[in-house]
Design brief:
Strand content of chain A: under 5%
Structural class of chain A: mainly alpha
Radius of gyration of chain A: 19 Å
Radius of gyration of chain B: 19 Å
Number of helices of chain B: 8
Order of helices and strands of chain B: EEEHEEEHHHEHEHEEHH
Helix content of chain A: over 70%
Number of strands of chain A: 0
Strand order of the largest sheet of chain B: 6-7-8-3-9-10
Order of helices and strands of chain A: HHHHHHHHHH
Strand content of chain B: 25-35%
Largest sheet of chain B: 6 strands, mixed
Number of helices of chain A: 10
Largest interface: A-B, 33 and 36 residues
Shape of chain A: globular
Number of domains of chain A: 1
CATH topology of chain B: Rossmann fold
Largest sheet of chain A: none
Oligomer: heterodimer
Amino acid sequence: MNVGRILALVYRDLLIIRRSKWRLVEIFYFPLTTMLMWGFYASYSASFAFEAGLLVLVISLFWNFAYVAQSTVNMQMMEDVWFGSLKQLFLSGVSEVEYVAARIFTATVVSAPVLALMAAVAFFSGWDFLSELPLVAAISALTLLTSLAMAVLITGMIVVLGRGYGFLSWTALQAFVLLSAPFFPREVFPGFLQPVSAVMPYTYIFEAARNLALGSPVGLWKPTLVAAAYFVFVWPVYIFCFRLARKNGNLVKLA
Amino acid sequence: MAIISISRVSKQFGSRGDGGKKEKFYALKDVSLKIEEGEIFGILGPNGAGKTTLLNIALGIVYPDSGNVSVFGCDVINGKVVQGISYVSGEERFHWALTPSDVLTFGCILHGLGRSERRHRRDELLALFGLDKVAKSRFDVLSTGEKMRLAFAYALINRPKLLLLDEPTIGLDPDIAITVRKEIKRINGELGATIVLTSHYMREVEQLCGRIAFINRGKIMQVAKVSEIRKRHAGLDAYFVKMVGQR
């Protein structure tokens, strides 16, 4: 893995994002408007359902952060697919690991200010998290790690399935979030879904976030373990997907 | 010394047949080929013959079902990225929002050039390909000729030892095509790069290539020197028609 090539791709990504106004709008607009909506709701509901409003606000923050981090990686890839520049990149000596590693770096750089802005909205809407800042930072870091793992997995899926499945870039996470029981404990799910939810990437992150919002004790070892497991697991899958796509000719169709 | 060595390579792809059933066909069948250092080698054949598949396999972007491919002595099928290769296709595209200056700066960083060397190389290539005046224009507003010249400029950043060209002059105006051909000659002559090109234009092949391989329906029908073909046939057009007829 060559750090210089990764930084070159990050340079290119940031240029493209800066020049493509719709990307900037997409990255900031939806998370911020969503947070403002739930922020106003939390303020409104403070007198009769304070905890419910706060819970929705806090979970929305981590959910939106997860979406921005994951979709930034995958949308950068889809831009290369749509504008026909993917092949040129791979033929410029960039390996598949360098390619996605650069996007991970870009997504981290881009999603950090979005998180800061969303946190500011949450703060002014009544979530006083300053005394819990280390916990908020830890849950944010785990959300980021998990989302990047999901992005690597989704990139691999698109490479194998082809450009027709590019929609996974902005839809796939929703299913994982739903099955991760965001606003409620996984025991709320019907019996057959509970074991599925137990192995979902965000289940324990949302559990920690809910406990944080409600002032209950926050356990971090489970979400850390799951995030680390996902992050380790996705790489061999990703490399296998590229190998498969080179074998069945899908990579060249995508590029 | 063989820069590219392709040995008994076969590749099948699936496609939908008349009844909607998935059928497999050979894009390449038992293809062997050696391309020597410093030559301009042409790959000829009708549409769908397997030319681009052969290039994609040499580039490691498609893996063959069987056979071996090595470039600069490295096996390209083991996932290793071979450096020192550049590729230009007639449909070359860069991101619409980037300018020629951005594209070349990015390429210079990608190939590990230092800050001052980067600026020098970028400006040198912009001047060489007459792109100075459009250096700050977005890719989507460039003319076809400017886009093609940018593709060549980008391909030369790393001073490649091997340049693969897939229909490099397709859709270009004759004057731009002439410039591109001159550039191909120059890259081969001055920089000593080995060049492999696919083309439909026989005149282009006659002007540029020392040797050619004729490929049809995934099989290499013949590898020959252009000078020998000229002696035996009334030009490459006649040769092409004859070879296509030998199904």
